[in-house]
Amino acid sequence: MEENQRSSSSTAEDIGLLDVVVTLAENLKLLIIGPLLVGVCALGVSFLVPQTFQSVAVLQAEQPTASLMVTAAVLDPVITTLRLAGDDTVDEARTKLRGQIKTAVGRNDKLLTVTVSDHSAQQSQVIATALLRQTYQESRPKGSVRARLETQLAEAKSRFKNAQDAAEGVLKRLESSNSVLNGGSELARGYAELLTAAGAAQNQISAFESQLEGLNDAQVVQSPTLPQKASQPKKGLTAIGATVAAGLLLLLFIFMRQAWRKTSINETASAKLMRIRKSLGLK
């Protein structure tokens, strides 16, 4: 009995595998020609789709600068200068331009990568350059903030000069023989403190000047590039993807059609299908 059951199950498996092979053999031409035709059509359509070029710039800046780049204060002057609006309103042109700009800040290097897309390679570079220039201008403090920074800068310069002058006076006293014999260690300590104060003032001067100057070309690691090849559409990947997808869909359709044919041959299954149709109100 066990041997008969094993034999029958093995035979059923062989028949099932044979059915699959027969189905594939009968529809081999359709499975080959169909996906190829779909892939060729997809390739042809990809040639009709407008190309997209990307200009990439990299600069030493963080997330606040990336957020500044897509504000109206930066985008509107760029739209006006390059006449990007056309027949669109300012809001529509701004939304469109914002969609062409992508920014990303590296986790490790903290570099800001700006990518500008356009249907023209030259135009993408022009927009990226104008975007950086306008960002430089908007990054500079204005109004009361600028006045406060200028006051702090003047005070820091004054402290630096006073510390330098005092340090020079103490140095002259240290160089005299009398000061070495009388209180030389205190003068040396005072001279070191004055040098420290001068260094701190110098650091403050550099920080205030950097804030007043804002972003500039000194922070640019890579100027906006002129793309040589289109980034979209990827014609090869589009054709391959369409071919594979069409092949899988055709394969699924063939096996479903074959299963339906087998089911319709089986009288018991046909009776069940009729009952299901009646229950659903179908003819």
Descriptive report:
- Strands 2-3-1-4 form a four-stranded antiparallel sheet.
- It folds into three domains: 2-48 and 235-280, no CATH class; 53-140, TATA-Binding Protein; 143-213.
- With 283 residues, it is α+β, with helices and mostly antiparallel strands.
- The protein has helices at 2-26, 28-48, 63-69, 72-82, 90-100, 121-139, 143-175, 177-181, 184-213, 235-265, 267-280, and strands at residues 53-59, 101-105, 112-118, 220-222.
- Helices cover 73% and strands 8% of the residues.
- The longest helix is centred in the middle third of the chain and has 33 residues, at 143-175.
- Residues 7-15 have low confidence and may be disordered.
Strand order across the largest sheet: 2-3-1-4
Q: Provide the residue-averaged pLDDT.
A: 81
> Helicity range of the residues?
over 70%
Beta content: 5-15%
Number of domains: 3
Report the structural category. alpha+beta
Q: Write down the overall geometry.
A: elongated
The Cα radius of gyration reads 38 Å
Low-confidence blocks of residues:
7-15
What's the main sheet like?
Answer: 4 strands, antiparallel
Helix run count: 11
Summarize the structure.
By secondary structure, this protein is α+β, with helices and mostly antiparallel strands.
Which keywords apply here?
single chain; 283 residues; alpha+beta; TATA-Binding Protein; 3 domains
